[in-house]
Amino acid sequence: MTLKKRLLSNGLASVFQKGVRVLEQLLLVPFFITSWGAAYYGEWLTLTIIPSVIAFSDLGFGTAAANSFVLRYAAGESQKAANINKTGMYIITIMVLVAMIISLLTIFILDYFHVFDKSLINSNEAILAVSILILACLLNFYNQLIESYYRAAQKAALAINLLTVKAALNLGAGLLVLLLGFGVVAFALSQLLVSLIFNLFYWVKGKQVLSLFDDYKGKRDKVILKEITKKGLGYLMFPAWQAIYFQGTTFVVRIVLGPEAVAIFNTVRTLSRSVNQLLNIVSSSIFPELQFEIGQGNEEKAQKIYRFSIVFSFLIAFVGVVFLAFFGLWFYKLWTQNELVVPPLMWYIFVVGLLFHAFWWSSEPVFRAKNEPYKFAMSGVFSALVSVGLTYIFSKYLGITGAALGALGLDVLMALIIMPLSAKMLNMRVIDIFSHGLNDMKKIYNEIKLKLKIS
């Protein structure tokens, strides 16, 4: 399969995956409320905070091991890749055991202080259901590394489609439990059963797709262990800038401008960033191919993929900006039932931010592809802190429109820092991205035009 076809397959798989995730988020809610009642469902959401937090524990180490594995395999270092897999599995298992101990201690402490007794859900059922969900989350810790088998075999679309099937199975199992009138324990068991069966199949299928482990037996390596741990801690910093930015700016707006301003600020930001879902599809589509080409040392192909992602993301953002500029405020009023009044200038500031966001968000995969998390993480934390500070200053003098300017600061700073840095990592200049990138898009357009004429 050619590079273009793989990119297209990845894109289509990502679109389908997004659709199932949106369906999962929207479809279950009315069934939860109908089956359990709003208050009981609210208690359940509160309880699921514990497994949700636990799920973040492996974000760094699984990603670090997976990226190292793909880069070594693509470079032809099969034995090193097998050693990384073995060492990565060891680290992830350690993380699972640590997470289990922390989870048990957390549940014990909460039970000791009778936190579960204050819930509408029976305390014994609540403890059992949360424990089962935590186990289901822990089983997913291995999926990052297993997914790298498919990337290494240049079958990323297959991995995305399989994970989409898992999401659909989770949705179906959850719906069945709710329709049959069962409670929280049965719901948690349904999710655990899906994880057990799917993850075993995902692992076996991944090993078949790659066919590396029949010839190479991995062994634990202390040097690899240190490298994965170091990079894993870097990936754990990825959510830090998001927490600082989103929670920090919200807190500042609340302190300076009050609760109603928070409602306006967050709803405007949410709606204006709806276009970002399309940018995420581009990012997830190009990442596997970008990483493989980098691993193989095909710098020219890697540069081409990178240029394509930048230009295509900018075009999507531009169309999104035009659409939101003309119709966004009308839809916002409809969405909020005219309860919130938004200054037009504030709206346009948030919308323009999409253009800057497109530049740095489409550059982010380079850092993961090269397995260099610290450069991106530190840039993100710095930009988030500056943005929170600007939000405070501008809010005091310009009100909620000033808060929008402060929030825009993050996207502007990240575009100025991340895009040049990622281009340099691929031995490119920023000007090359646009000059060559536009030519790439013209070639693609002419190829499509020619095929349409032939057909």
Automatic annotation (TrEMBL):
Keywords for this protein: Cell membrane, Membrane, Transmembrane, Transmembrane helix
Membrane-spanning residues: 21-41, 53-75, 87-114, 126-146, 158-178, 310-332, 344-362, 374-394, 400-419
Keyword hit for Transmembrane: yes
Cell membrane listed as a keyword: yes
Protein location: Cell membrane
Membrane topology: Multi-pass membrane protein
Principal place of residence: membrane
Name of the protein in question: Lipopolysaccharide biosynthesis protein
